[in-house]
Amino acid sequence: MKLNRFERWFVNSPARNIGQHLVMRWFKSTVALKTGGTILEVGCGRGVGAKLIWKAHRPERLYLLDLDLQMIARAHRRINGNNGDGISFCVGDAARLPLRDDSVDAVFGFGFLHHVPAWRDGLAEVTRVLKHGGVYFMEEYYPSLYQNFVTRHILVHPDEDRFNSQDLHRAFQDVNLTLTHSFELKRMGILGVGVKADSQSISCKRHEDACQVVLD
Ligand SMILES: C[S@@+](CC[C@H](N)C(=O)[O-])C[C@H]1O[C@@H](n2cnc3c(N)ncnc32)[C@H](O)[C@@H]1O
Hints:
Rossmann fold; 8-stranded mixed beta sheet; 8 helices; about 35% helix; globular
């Protein structure tokens, strides 16, 4: 689901920039990724996370995906000219990722999953595209933060089947992602690192046609 005006303003603000730097610092303190790999960022927004990922991990290929063309266009402007080589931009849905099974070394998600109505499908898709041993770096929030008596009047999120801590932990088990690191405020949200088990077999459809717009 696309952001409303207020949240769009917030995620494009300097405050969010600082927040993402701190989250990335935590991610980096957990698992060391090898350089030269393939990385996907889902819900990349304006591309601040992408620049941090690029700097920290020097992937050979970085896919940036967002549902919102305006966000992808912003990310494209932010990154192109700096270090655009090896970076692909795609307008698409997290619940239908346009990548092959077992094809990426890591997926980064800075706060996108709680915006996806079919969030379990989103999580299953993240797992499907990860290689065995691949890592999902996740920043997520719970409804008591974004749908409480104040925030429900100023933010817009899907209404049904929202996840709290317990739901998310169970869903990780269901897709066979092992939560190796986490920092959680039970009623607020979580920073987490999930690793796809070696013996993982998850059957999902491929959605290689699911990129609506591709910018190079
Ligand atoms: C809270 S914003 C976070 C943006 C950026 N990652 C950040 O940390 O500032 C969530 C982002 O996820 C995107 N998004 C929402 N639903 C999505 C979906 N189903 N598939 C892909 N991206 C989605 C939104 O357009 C938005 O850019």
